[in-house]
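Quick one, tokens below:
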């Protein structure tokens, strides 16, 4: 059984930075991509960022571009999200996600790894709260 564990959430002020980390534990597995989703109270879950290991391609939702940076290590199955210039609207529960190669999923077309169904492993989440 594979588990994703997030860390690094907390309460900060607008303009501050936080760094989220996610590590996979349990049985050995390999991934095509890892990333982050978030869900704010009363809102739908939304894509934040993902790193597609093949080609080393990061992808971001438009609202975080230029402020968030995703990085990771494919061999270690770890992913990080450096969040700078945080805004109150970034307040949400942040979930680490991974797409395991065993699933055999292939993304065709545009917007690869920006949709929740493209990931088969989800962490329990970590709270990020940004005060104004």
């Amino acid at each position: 059984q594979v588990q994703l564990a997030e860390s690094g959430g907390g309460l900060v002020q607008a303009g501050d930075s936080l760094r989220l980390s996610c590590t996979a534990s349990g049985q050995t597995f390999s991934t095509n991509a890892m990333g982050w989703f978030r869900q704010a109270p009363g809102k739908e879950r939304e894509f934040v960022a993902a790193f597609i290991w093949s080609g080393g391609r990061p992808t971001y939702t438009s609202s975080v571009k230029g402020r968030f940076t995703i990085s990771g290590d494919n061999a270690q199955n770890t992913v990080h999200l450096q969040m700078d210039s945080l805004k109150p609207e970034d307040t949400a529960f942040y979930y680490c996600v991974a797409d395991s190669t065993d699933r055999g999923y292939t993304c065709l077309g545009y917007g690869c790894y920006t949709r929740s169904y493209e990931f088969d492993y989800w962490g329990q989440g970590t709270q990020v709260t940004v005060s104004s």
